[in-house]
Amino acid sequence: MSNITSIPNSPGRIWGVLALVVAIIPLPFLVMLNVLSYVVRSLPSFDASHSAAAWIYGVLAALGLFFFPIFLVLATWFGVTAVRKPHPRAKLYGWIALTIVIVTIPLLWLGYLAWFG
Length: 117
What we know:
74% of the residues lie in helices and 0% in strands. It is an all-alpha fold. It is elongated and about 80 Å long.
């Protein structure tokens, strides 16, 4: 009898997939935050107590202050881990996840601009 053994590939692709998923999860929330920020900034009177859009924006922005840093740090960590693996798909997914993280930083600033402007 002979045993068939193979050397397993390093599990790199899963790190790339995790990085991509974690980077993509907050994107719909970010789009909604930017749309509501635009609506709130374009209101004729910027009084948060009289506008339902301003109230919803405030809730979403407060949740986003806790939501986004966690996902951006996780996506960055998973992306760097994936890029360091020898698997080609892991590198591709990792670089895509890191690109998404870099692109979302200015979008985050624009989303929170209603608080500062």
